[in-house]
Fold these 2 entries.
Entry 1:
Amino acid sequence: MSDVLNKSTVLVLNRNWQAIAVKTPAEAFSMMATGNATALKISGDDDMTPVTFEEWMGLPVLEGDNCIGTVKGPVRVPTVLVLARFDRVPKRRPKFCAKAIWERDGGVCQYTGRKLKPNEGNIDHIVPVSRGGKSTWDNCVLADKKVNSRKGSKLPEEAGLKLLRRPAAPREVPVSQLIRNTYQVRDWEVFLESRGAFDVTV
């Protein structure tokens, strides 16, 4: 039961029904109990009804539903919440990681301009770590593995290389574009299908 309660399987919408966060069922039940959110009872893309905490506790558990055991019997785990008062879509930069560098650089080697396949590239530190370089947006670029290997612990100019452009942190984007449906929750699809370029974990 604790495993079900602590997986990030609940999508949170603002009161305009725009996706803004992901929570665990434990957090979702707390938000519902305090009146900060209602759960959506979903019976298909066109049948969605906001339900209060008290109503939710009395819903029947259907075959295929995730549920938890309580002293009053099994309770269905919500998949989507709607906040009662919050109506904005916050913005945030993507989390710094190798995947985000690939996305920022468009899968293109920043030294050769060649479009790379996933197994052909890796992340290069412009100023090598061995020479004090940091793992930051402005010091890391996508590079062809062969080029990166040749560069080694040199600066680009020392290796006869030139960057296509100076790297920088990507712009902030609506948090809805950064939400990842890690557990493939079907009820999320209608809310995530038109988010734009960053379509894939918060």
Entry 2:
Amino acid sequence: MKYIIVFIHALAIAIYQLLFGDPVAVAAKIPDNIEAGKNFVIEVTVNKAQVSGFAKLQLEIPAGFVASEVESKGGSFSSSGRIVKIIWTSVPSETELLVKINVSVPTSASGNLPIKGKFSYIENNVKQETEFPELTVKLSGAAPTDVSSQPAAEPVATTEPVATNAGTTDTTSQSFSKPNEPDASVSVNRKITALGSPNNFEVNLVIKKGGVKGFAKLSEKIPVGYKAEQGSVSGASFAFENGEAKFIWTSIPAAEEITVSYKLTPDAGASIQNPSYIEGSKFSYIESDQTKKITLDRQELSSDSQPQASTNTQATEPATTTNTTPPDNNAVANEVAKEPAATTTEAPATKIATEPATTATVPKNGNIHYSVQIGAFKNGVSAGSLGKRYSLSENIKTEMHEGYTKCILGKFDEYKTARDNRETVKNKGVTDAFVTAYNSGKRITVQEALMVSNQKWYK
């Protein structure tokens, strides 16, 4: 009976898609006349219908061509070789998106060259793709030549000096950072001010974020014997855990300069070491679909707050390091998807009993943990009957989220463990099961959780 129900469900979905089709449509256009050595603009119109959450537009341009951003509708633009991407962690609400990409044509190019593209999104927790008809760049000039083997031209980066504010007369201690890319415009300035009470300090951090968008995190390791209390957060979520003060933005404010702060006070019953230092500090953000980090100098807590010479440091972790590279957004999209509203034929219960969370040790990655969602119901549902239906021996918890009663399994420190549990549940017939993520009990995207906890995505 269980397999018959699953078959009927899959058949219903197939019939629906056959009758109503895919409402998402993508069209692209380029000028009729394009000359070698000149620039032109690709205009892509995406009719996204009801698509929300994660989405990606990807183009493949001819080798040797160089793409740059004109209008990305709030998405993260990146270009590497022949591949151009615009990624939205949350696609804009308007039904139709018009994006524009400037393309520089090398002087040596000729002949008829193709441009391909596709729009990827999530529907019913399944990745979908819609391609636009292939475009042809028609170039006049010499006889057509094969440019497919030519190396892609890379844009030349310009190096801008990073101000160090040397010689400052401020009576507070300061430390400055330098981005690990010489042309990056991101920097962080830390200022420590001694307060009236002994061993009490205020720490202010000024972030000049340049073009950083989307997810970002600032963390500082707090000296032994101290605790950190929230100050100004500028839209961030503040947490003090495992000896670290953290500011996390799911979408960092648009302002060029952001200020956050926290207070350091002695932790009751703890002994304070002298001298004490703030160290292990870093600002993490995403640029060109890669995780990048800049570090701040180690800095002493000093009651007299004498000026301290600034020192520039570079992040020691390259973008290709496994623990610092974000997971492939195509793959992560399956877990970032908006959760579907599952239906049930069960009679609504008079009351949904939310089972208490089981006691667990604090995860080694702070308060990040993963679970597996096996259903979302508008009407009441008995967790016990759901477990019997799918022969699930694990404790099923329920939670109210976005107007649905959601049934959750497990609490895992590691994403891979949750992923394995998801596959086990799917094999028992819960085909729509997927991994969810939490930070201090609050739902966040799996992509954000992976970045915060420095864990790797597994298919």
